[in-house]
Write a structure and sequence with these properties.
Blueprint lengths: L1 H11 L3 E6 L5 E6 L2 H13 L26 E3 L2
Parallel strand pairs: 1-3
Antiparallel strand pairs: 1-2
């Protein structure tokens, strides 16, 4: 259920994207939306996270501006 907290946070901010646990015990994903909301989500991922998660570090890459959302809604991928 750890991913559910991330999904809920993304939805509450009105973001689009997805999150997925990897076999290496890390989490990957993609977030789209207004820059201020994306920044809020990044801060949550880096400093708060799900209640049972342990955050060792957060790396955000491939950041770019887009003219329109490429993903609809916020979901968990398996």
């Amino acid at each position: 259920m750890v991913r559910q907290y991330t999904e809920d946070e993304g939805r509450s901010l009105g973001l689009s994207g997805w999150v997925k646990n990897t076999r290496q015990g890390t989490v990957i994903g993609q977030i789209q939306g207004p820059q201020d909301k994306v920044d809020t989500m990044k801060n949550w991922l880096k400093n708060i996270g799900s209640p049972s998660s342990r955050i060792d570090r957060a790396v955000f890459s491939n950041q770019r501006d887009i003219s329109k959302l490429e993903i609809r809604g916020f979901s968990t991928r398996y």
